[in-house]
């Protein structure tokens, strides 16, 4: 949609070359597990949120930090530093426009005192430094020693730092992070740097970053940073899948242990009262649960989001000691199936009535913020929404946990947004895309709320290389996780789309009466009906309207409805809904409004302090459209569910 360039002050070819050099390293395979760092009897956790020291590298080539090795000494000794909150984007924290629009390397640093006991039995305690996410390219040092490098802004990465911190009790350990937000044609999302060499029009070394996606490229350490411990022999990964009939469910598990081949594993599955309902042992097996409580979506059952807890215990002999590791994984028992006209959860038709979101808010940008997270879930449930898509990147694990717990169904999208340039369909991009899918599935594979993977949003899927590209990405995704359907979200013409043959569900975006025929609400019924019929005729796959919407400036009124007024947004909804109501009797299986809330974008002539298609403002106040949607979602929920009358009231929160 909008293709605006971010302005940078200074910069130059050398800094850009530096990023390319780093990104040119062979793409790593997502090896090992990435279990969420939970406290258990054998694992401790220390939060590193709060204020970090921060310095943006404003040198012309953005590489002074590397030339002068800022990681070798306290950052404050390299030059002026400021306080920077973590987690948060750095862009909106200061009054400095050059930091808001900064492109290149920024540096973060935190000094941490470690508990003595982590350092005492050095051979048996493993200390891990974990980042929930940092955007976009990260290099991390501990006490001046590089411990990890990671590409990609929305997924976790970690490093075992045990050997570096040993032997220095009482001395703070220094964590330094260099972070680069530059996007290239081969990053996900892609972008490009454009140098403005016309000296009569631009200052020396002037460059802009071009992106082909419609949200601000916020950067920073966006999610929690933690230190956690495990024994030196530890549970590295757990994979769980479930099958069920009415009276019995099977939970298949696989556990991997690292650090020794001599270990024993025992497992017990607990219900929500703590009662053990099944036990097992060994690294792989199946647990049988009689009369299971299934995991149901919100508004489909009186007790949605039911989770069991799988306690995995490992024992091993190492270094003359008996080591025990314990990890508890929440498990939801549910099945997902797709037919040519339906999406079935636990064998029952599921209709997605939900939203598309962004991780976005005033001041903190894309930084995880608990009050905002909880407010958003309260608004979703107020609205009667049963689902959302993580447009256009994986959301924080803390958000996904609440989806599991509340029964909010998720279409889990990777950051494949804005894949428009033909260079972004080459082998280098493809290899990286495969790794990102590995990292996403490794993180979210055990989540009952995740019912489908989305590998991209609105790529140029009509281009010839898109066929091989999406065939490969989707096949890889299915090989990694055969238990879930896969899609990508398209706005291409049904007859030209080269990726659609490989998806399980057609997800289509359209903006009739907005980007097409602006102001003409009357064209919606015909155009939307044609859209659905063309796609269904071609593929005989169920269809989700994965985006539709109109900008509205809160408080702007007009009757008859004119574009940008609250009335126009409402009228557009009603036109779309009348077609959905006909087609959901056939093969339309969902509707996701664009967007849950207003959000920040790059500046441009079509954006007034961001995208205003939210049904809530950026501060989470409802516009008139929110009430229209609320009436509708509760009505649909009431028609299709077998909830007891008391729960059918839309004034009641279920949890
Ligand atoms: C789209 C994109 C979304 C934009 C939206 C818009 O098709 O998928 O990222 O924000 O349109 O409002 O233009």
TrEMBL record:
Catalytic reactions on record: a beta-D-glucuronoside + H2O = D-glucuronate + an alcohol
UniProt-annotated location(s): Lysosome
EC number of the protein: 3.2.1.31
Gene Ontology BP annotations: carbohydrate metabolic process; glucuronoside catabolic process
Activity modulation comment: Inhibited by L-aspartic acid.
Catalytic class of the enzyme: hydrolase
A GO cellular component entry from the record: extracellular space
Signal sequence bounds: 1-31
Superkingdom of origin: Eukaryota
Family that this chain belongs to: Belongs to the glycosyl hydrolase 2 family.
Name of protein: Beta-glucuronidase
């Amino acid at each position: 949609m909008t293709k605006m360039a971010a302005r940078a002050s200074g910069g130059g070819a050398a800094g850009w070359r530096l990023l390319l050099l780093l990104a040119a390293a062979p793409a790593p395979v997502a090896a090992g597990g990435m279990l969420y760092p939970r406290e258990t009897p054998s694992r401790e956790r220390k939060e590193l949120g709060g204020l970090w020291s921060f310095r943006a590298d404003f040198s012309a080539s953005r590489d002074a930090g590397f030339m002068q090795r800022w990681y070798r000494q306290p950052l404050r000794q390299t030059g002026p530093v400021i306080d920077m909150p973590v987690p948060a984007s750095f862009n909106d924290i200061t009054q400095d426009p050059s930091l808001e629009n900064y492109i290149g390397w920024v540096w973060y640093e935190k000094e941490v005192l470690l508990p003595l006991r982590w350092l005492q039995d050095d051979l048996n305690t493993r200390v891990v430094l974990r980042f929930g996410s940092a955007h976009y390219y990260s290099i991390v040092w501990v006490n001046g020693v590089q411990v990890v490098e990671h590409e990609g802004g929305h997924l976790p990465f970690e490093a075992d730092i045990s050997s570096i911190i040993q032997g220095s009790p009482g001395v703070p350990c220094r964590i330094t992070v260099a972070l680069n937000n530059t996007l290239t044609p081969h990053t996900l999302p892609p972008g490009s740097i454009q140098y403005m060499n016309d000296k009569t029009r631009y200052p020396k070394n002037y460059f802009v970053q071009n992106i082909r996606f419609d949200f601000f490229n916020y950067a920073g350490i966006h999610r929690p940073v933690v230190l956690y411990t495990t024994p030196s022999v530890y549970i590295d990964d757990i994979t769980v899948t479930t099958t069920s009939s009415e009276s019995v469910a099977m939970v298949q598990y696989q556990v991997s242990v690292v650090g020794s081949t001599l270990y024993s594993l025992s497992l017990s599955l607990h219900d929500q009262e703590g009662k053990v309902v099944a036990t097992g042992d060994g690294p792989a097996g199946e647990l049988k649960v009689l009369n299971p409580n299934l995991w149901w979506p919100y508004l489909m059952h009186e007790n949605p989001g039911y989770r069991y807890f799988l306690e995995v215990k490992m024992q091993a002999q190492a270094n003359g000691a008996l080591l025990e590791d314990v990890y508890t994984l929440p498990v939801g028992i549910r099945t997902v199936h797709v037919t040519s006209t339906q999406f079935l959860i636990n064998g029952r038709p599921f209709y997605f009535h939900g939203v598309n979101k962004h991780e976005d808010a005033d001041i903190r940008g894309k930084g995880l913020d608990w009050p905002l997270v909880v407010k958003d879930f309260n608004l979703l449930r107020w609205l009667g929404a049963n689902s959302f898509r993580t447009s256009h990147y994986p959301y924080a694990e803390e958000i996904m946990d609440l989806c599991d717990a509340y029964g909010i169904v998720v279409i889990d999208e990777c950051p494949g947004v804005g894949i428009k340039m033909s260079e972004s369909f080459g082998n280098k991009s493809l290899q990286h895309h495969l790794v990102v899918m590995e990292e996403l599935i490794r993180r979210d594979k055990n989540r009952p709320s995740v019912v489908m993977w989305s590998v991209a949003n609105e790529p140029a899927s009509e281009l010839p290389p898109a066929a091989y590209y999406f065939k490969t990405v989707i096949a890889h995704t299915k090989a990694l996780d055969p238990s879930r359907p896969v899609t990508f979200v398209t706005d291409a013409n049904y007859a030209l789309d080269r990726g659609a043959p490989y998806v399980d569900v057609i997800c289509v975006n359209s903006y009739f009466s907005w980007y097409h025929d602006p102001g003409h609400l009357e064209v919606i019924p015909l155009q939307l009906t044609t859209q659905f019929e063309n796609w269904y005729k071609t593929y005989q796959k169920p269809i989700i309207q994965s985006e539709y919407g109109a900008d509205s400036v809160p408080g702007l009124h007009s009757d008859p409805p004119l574009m940008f007024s609250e009335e126009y947004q409402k009228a557009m909804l009603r036109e779309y809904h009348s077609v959905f109501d006909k087609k959901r009797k056939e093969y339309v299986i969902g509707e996701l409004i664009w967007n849950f809330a207003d959000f920040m974008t790059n500046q441009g002539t079509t954006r007034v302090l961001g995208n205003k298609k939210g049904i809530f403002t950026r501060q989470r106040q409802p516009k008139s459209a929110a009430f229209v949607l609320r009436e509708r979602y509760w009505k649909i929920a009431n028609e299709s569910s077998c909830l007891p009358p008391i729960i059918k009231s839309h004034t009641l929160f279920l949890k």
